[in-house]
Predict the 3D structure of the following.
Amino acid sequence: MSFLSITAAARRKATLIASISSLLLSCVHGQFIPEIDATYSSTPKPFTLKVNPSFIETTRLKVQLGRIANDMGVPPFTDGISTEMAQTLQNYWVDELNWTSVQEQINKNFTMFTTTVEIDDKNYTEPIPLHFVHHRSPRHDAIPLLFLHGFPGSFLEVGRIISSLTHPPNSSVPAFHVVAPSLPGFGFTPAPVHAGLGPIEAAHAYNALMHQLSYPRYVMQAGDLGAFVTTYQAALHPESVISVLSNLWAPAVNATDLARFEANETTPGETAYIRNITAYQTGGAGYLFLQSTQPLMAGHALTDSPLGFALYIFQLMQELGTFYHWSLSEIITWAMMYIIQGPYPATRFYKEFRNADQIVGADMFGPALFVNVPVGVTQRPQDAGWGVPLDWARRIGNVTAIYVHDFGGHFAAYQTPDTLLDDCWRFWGNKSASGVGKH
Ligand SMILES: *[C@@H]1O[C@H](CO)[C@@H](O)[C@H](O)[C@H]1NC(C)=O
Ligand SMILES: *[C@@H]1O[C@H](CO)[C@@H](O)[C@H](O)[C@H]1NC(C)=O
Ligand SMILES: *[C@@H]1O[C@H](CO)[C@@H](O)[C@H](O)[C@H]1NC(C)=O
Ligand SMILES: *[C@@H]1O[C@H](CO)[C@@H](O)[C@H](O)[C@H]1NC(C)=O
Ligand SMILES: *[C@@H]1O[C@H](CO)[C@@H](O)[C@H](O)[C@H]1NC(C)=O
Ligand SMILES: *[C@@H]1O[C@H](CO)[C@@H](O)[C@H](O)[C@H]1NC(C)=O
Ligand SMILES: *[C@@H]1O[C@H](CO)[C@@H](O)[C@H](O)[C@H]1NC(C)=O
Ligand SMILES: *[C@@H]1O[C@H](CO)[C@@H](O)[C@H](O)[C@H]1NC(C)=O
Ligand SMILES: *[C@@H]1O[C@H](CO)[C@@H](O)[C@H](O)[C@H]1NC(C)=O
């Protein structure tokens, strides 16, 4: 090796080290996100996504250097993402991903804002900066709708229903002003500055956001973590939340239910529900137990490896809707909604749910507050809580409608937008659920 090639190699190494240290510095927690240079004022300000290009390049380099596990030949999506799929994703990310184009699409598809809200809560007294999508309908009778995403999703989940909600096909179905915020530590809502911002605090924060936008009365639609926040928000702010349409409604199976199940006394519907929840608990909820108990054990690894994080969430994206084909660009885009600010605070949000006695073991909806406002439940087979018996569904809320679909999975708004839109229109087309419209 000549002297020249040694110095060239040393220079390449120095460049790599410099860009990697800038990546490490960017993971500092605080009420801002260094790589996007956003400000969070006390009133809504327009937000355009513009990620520091050197961060995108460093991320690409880290993906290129990524080391992939040998899957030992188990069938794909059993233990996680296969070696072959991981390599395909790695190659695409290194050679083909065009972040500039993805970012342009996000800015084109969504009108976004940042703001800050204050809540009255002993557990979290700091101001709460928020990122949110806000599209207004031209219809004078439009209903304000707060849409909450979950894990491992983001505000991008609302993208396939938002135009039809604001601009429905005709005046016989309701129209909506849509607000879709990022959960704390997700997307471009900065991580909390300390522990204590859980589902109750988030519920207060989103209610404050709706009031700040001059929507004192509104309806809510959510699945996954957003659905849990929704139950708190509806229970704690019934004067503001008119009604809820939830695509995850999984009341806890209690000791009496389990004893009846073991004694073969449960109805076929109850038996199917218990089997579904139990299968999820024993076979699909590993991420949930880890993230809600000792999240930092995986937190450093997931923060350090963009490829590793994308493969971690891709397994969840795939198993909760095997009918859906995720493109490589989609998988990376969904992962980037965490990677840009660092995925740790979002993964840790589960711990806050556990602290609030939610999502503990089989108790999906733990001892949640009863929701008195009307609740519509919309279900698809490839989702946890499928087939909940109506009387069980009513243990945790005033369920006035259950819409059961024979196709679809966990990400209803994104994967089966048409059936979710129909449910929004029929549930809120009923005056008793929306306060406006027919009937
Ligand atoms: C990436 O996308 C941008 C914006 O659409 C475009 O201008 C640019 O040419 C693309 N780059 C490549 C390498 O295709
Ligand atoms: C933006 O919207 C277009 C058209 O609906 C869609 O094809 C594309 O996937 C969307 N991109 C993102 C990042 O939301
Ligand atoms: C209005 O649109 C809805 C939703 O697409 C549809 O079900 C309904 O038949 C339409 N009504 C009229 C009068 O066109
Ligand atoms: C389980 O729920 C049912 C219905 O609400 C109730 O009758 C029963 O007492 C509960 N059992 C326990 C152990 O909480
Ligand atoms: C319940 O049914 C199963 C299968 O039919 C049977 O093996 C079991 O003994 C039954 N248990 C009770 C408590 O009756
Ligand atoms: C603080 O957190 C605890 C545990 O999650 C919860 O029981 C309590 O209601 C919270 N306090 C307030 C003021 O929200
Ligand atoms: C459920 O909602 C309906 C419609 O608003 C209302 O009339 C009824 O009293 C509510 N029931 C409960 C248990 O809160
Ligand atoms: C039950 O729950 C799981 C989630 O773990 C889901 O993937 C499965 O397809 C569900 N549905 C049925 C009908 O078992
Ligand atoms: C509207 O909702 C009320 C309360 O849940 C229900 O009793 C009624 O049947 C609904 N009307 C229609 C047309 O679905």
In short: Residues 1-6, 23-30 have pLDDT under 50 and may be disordered.
